[in-house]
Amino acid sequence: QVQLVESGGGLVQPGGSLRLSCAASGSIFSVDIMGWYRQAPGKQRELVAVITTGGTTKYTDSVKGRFTISRDSAKNMAYLQMNSLKPEDTAVYFCNVLYTIRFGEPSYDYWGQGTQVTVSS
């Protein structure tokens, strides 16, 4: 069993900053990829940023230069630093991990429950 606990969401004014955290725990041998996705009302869930075990990152174009994803692999934690927030960043942000429970076995995909980010004046 795996648990993902997200924190750091809230209400912020345009131009402000928030830092999201995601902690993975449970029956985990390794966490290969950690990522953040978001879903705004009436829209499909979309990739925001992902980071591999080796530190390779990928961002959706709309957040490049404003958001930074990082991870602490020893603690199985991921972070999303969000700066210069815009109203269009308003969404529920979900943490996602690709993990294994034993060496050499296939990876599993798991989602957190989401944390609300609202950017409004």
Could you describe the 3D structure shown?
This protein has strands at residues 2-7, 10-12, 18-26, 30-39, 46-52, 57-59, 67-72, 77-82, 91-100, 108-111, 115-119. Strand 4 and strand 5 (46-52) form a beta hairpin. The chain is mostly beta strands and 121 residues long. The mean pLDDT is 95. The termini are far apart. It contains no helices and 11 strands. 0% of the residues lie in helices and 57% in strands. The strands form 2 sheets. Strands 2, 4, 5, 6, 9, 10 and 11 form a 7-stranded mixed β-sheet that branches. It has a 4-stranded antiparallel β-sheet with strand order 1-3-8-7, with no helix packed on it.
- How many angstroms separate the termini? 40 Å
Helix content: under 10%
Please tally the helical runs, counting DSSP H or I stretches of 4 or more residues.
Answer: 0
> What's the quaternary structure here?
single chain
Based on CA inertia axes, which overall geometry fits?
A: elongated
Instruction: From the alpha carbons, calculate the radius of gyration and give it in angstroms.
Output: 14 Å
Beta fraction: over 45%
Mean pLDDT: 95
**Which structural class do you get from the secondary structure elements?**
mainly beta
Number of strands: 11
Order of helices and strands: EEEEEEEEEEE
State the major sheet.
7 strands, mixed
Poorly predicted ranges: none
